[in-house]
């Protein structure tokens, strides 16, 4: 059996044309060996040449206005491109965070100079961002961050440690949440855009169980930033960060990380194999339902709303589905993926190794459920 994420006939004629164009480009790239599809590619598959290729095609920074080097396209068009990249397991990790949330944050909170400085490079697929929120002893309880920025004349000096920073080792920039002022937990926090490299910042690799380097510990030792590195309002960091989280939590990557595994497995499912076709149907109907929810949040974001509760709901259900997908395929497949060599074995091995992270990154599901419960 063969499965694609969305039948080619779905959507308006313009969206169908865009999907067909992206799909053809990705299939050709796979056929030409430009990349090998990976599960969870948005987290772990870094290929800066490929990011630039997407930038040249106008598939990064799609919703950034044209005056800042973007393409002025709709959130739905971006959604279609994002889905296809994920479904094909394309190497998009380098630019993912910049495209997903930093462009939107800089557009909302940045000065005119910051917009001119950062947005064109994001749209070209040349500026990559790390997110510096978590710290040792400060993950779910994000407001307890201890990294501190102090004013020194016109500059800022930052000291502290950020943990689990994805892709910091290839980043050209990072955005950090730090304490600038005293006050109640959610007050006195501010965000800074940091240009890299910076002599006061050390990036130390953290190697994961798959032997790969996705994460980093980032140590700020009296790192000096100019006054114009402050993003938005001093002391409004908490409000800004929570606005950003709706972008971070609701996109197709919260349900499609292991989709290439499902597509590869489906190729080998015999239409007469009732248990396998039943499981395939179950998984596929869930992904379609979640897709509608994720689209609903994308529409709200495009309308200028802040659907934090809805985004938490999509992420809880979507990442639970992702784990179920990997587990179902593992159970049905009867193979030993960790030592296997086929494309399918490798996708399954990646899925198994990465699935514990699905419900942790971007806020754990327990914490999301408490946001949902409080919101309802
Ligand atoms: C793949 C991956 C990529 C990541 N990338 C980044 C990144 O780029 N930048 C960044 O800043 N961070 C990143 N993180 C860190 C991530 O945001 C944190 O792991 C997450 O917020 C949880 O924090 P913690 O690990 O400190 O766990 P803890 O907060 O210590 O939680 C441990 C357990 O306790 C539970 N728990 C905690 N508080 C509560 C509560 N109030 N109610 C109920 N249960 C609770 C949690 O659900 C969890 O099961 C990444 C993590 C992963 C796995």
UniProtKB/TrEMBL annotation:
Residues 131-222 form the Acyl-CoA oxidase/dehydrogenase middle domain. Keywords: Flavoprotein, Oxidoreductase. This is Acyl-CoA dehydrogenase. GO terms for molecular function: acyl-CoA dehydrogenase activity; flavin adenine dinucleotide binding. It holds the Pfam family Acyl-CoA_dh_M. InterPro entries: Acyl-CoA_DH_CS, Acyl-CoA_Oxase/DH_mid-dom, Acyl-CoA_Oxase/DH_mid-dom_sf, AcylCo_DH-like_C, AcylCoA_DH/ox_N, AcylCoA_DH/ox_N_sf, AcylCoA_DH/oxidase_NM_dom_sf, Mycobact_Acyl-CoA_DH. The lineage of its organism: Bacteria, Bacillati, Actinomycetota, Actinomycetes, Mycobacteriales. It comes from Mycolicibacterium diernhoferi. Gene3D superfamilies: Acyl-CoA dehydrogenase/oxidase, N-terminal domain, Butyryl-CoA Dehydrogenase, subunit A, domain 2, Butyryl-CoA Dehydrogenase, subunit A, domain 3. Residues 12-126 form the Acyl-CoA dehydrogenase/oxidase N-terminal domain. Its cofactor is FAD. One of its GO terms (cellular component) is plasma membrane.
């Amino acid at each position: 059996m063969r499965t694609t994420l969305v039948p080619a006939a779905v959507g308006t004629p313009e969206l169908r044309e865009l999907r067909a164009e992206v799909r053809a480009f990705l299939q050709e790239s796979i056929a030409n060996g430009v990349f090998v599809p990976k599960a969870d590619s948005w987290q772990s598959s870094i290929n800066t040449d490929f990011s630039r290729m997407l930038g040249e095609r106008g598939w990064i920074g799609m919703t950034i206005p044209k005056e800042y080097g973007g393409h002025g396209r709709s959130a739905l068009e971006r959604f279609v491109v994002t889905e296809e990249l994920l479904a094909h397991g394309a190497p998009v990790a380098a630019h993912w965070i910049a495209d997903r949330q930093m462009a939107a944050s800089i557009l909302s909170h940045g000065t005119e100079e910051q917009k001119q400085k950062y947005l064109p490079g994001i749209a070209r697929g040349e500026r990559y961002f790390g997110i510096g929120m978590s710290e040792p002893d400060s993950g779910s309880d994000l407001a307890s961050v201890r990294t501190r920025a102090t004013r020194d004349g016109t500059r800022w000096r930052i000291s502290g440690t950020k943990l689990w920073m994805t892709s910091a080792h290839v980043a050209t920039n990072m955005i950090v949440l730090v304490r600038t002022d005293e006050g109640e937990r959610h007050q006195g926090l501010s965000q800074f855009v940091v240009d890299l490299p910076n002599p006061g910042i050390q990036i130390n690799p953290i190697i994961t169980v798959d032997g790969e380097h996705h994460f980093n510990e980032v140590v700020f030792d009296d790192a000096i930033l100019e006054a114009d590195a402050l993003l938005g309002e001093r002391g409004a960091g908490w409000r800004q960060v929570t606005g950003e989280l709706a972008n971070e939590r609701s996109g197709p990557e919260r349900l499609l990380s292991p989709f290439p595994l499902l597509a590869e497995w489906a190729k080998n499912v015999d239409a007469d194999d009732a248990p396998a076709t039943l499981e395939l149907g179950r998984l596929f109907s869930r992904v379609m339902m979640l897709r509608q929810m994720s689209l609903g949040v994308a529409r709200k974001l495009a309308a200028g709303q802040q659907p934090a509760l809805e985004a938490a709901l999509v992420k809880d259900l979507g990442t639970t589905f992702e784990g179920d997908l990997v587990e179902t395929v593992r159970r049905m497949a009867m193979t030993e993926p960790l030592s296997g060599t086929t494309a399918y074995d490798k996708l399954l091995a990646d899925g198994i190794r990465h699935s514990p992270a699905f419900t942790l990154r971007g806020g754990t599901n327990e914490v999301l459920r408490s946001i949902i419960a409080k919101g309802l």
